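Dear colleagues,

As part of the handover before I leave the project, I'm documenting each prediction I ran so the next person doesn't have to rerun anything. This entry is a single chain, and its sequence is reproduced below.
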Amino acid sequence: QVRFVESGGGEVQPGGSLRLSCAASGFAFSTYDMSWVRQAPGEALEWVSDINSGGGTTSYADSVKGRFTISRDNAKNMVYLQLNSLKLEDTAVYFCGRGSERSFFVDTPKWGQGTRVTVSL
């Protein structure tokens, strides 16, 4: 059974940093691209970043480019998102998903509980 467990969220001030982690299980992790997506209060799901199966290629939404860094450890079935220079508008629940920007919505059979990031003054 495909499962994702996100962790690492919290409350920080603008300019702060967090490192999110996602433990994946139930599928051949090393063969899939992986994404991080987020959902702000009252908003739709928003793709944030993805990383290819080998970890050598990454992509970012314009809103986070230069501030967030995605990485993965295929030996541990983990994907990470380093969040730096956080802004108020980064406040959201963050989820990891299976697939790239183009495919995560159909390739993720079940979402985890997410991890909440709150950026506040």
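The first strand starts at residue 3 and ends at 7. The radius of gyration is 13 Å.

All the best with the project,
I.
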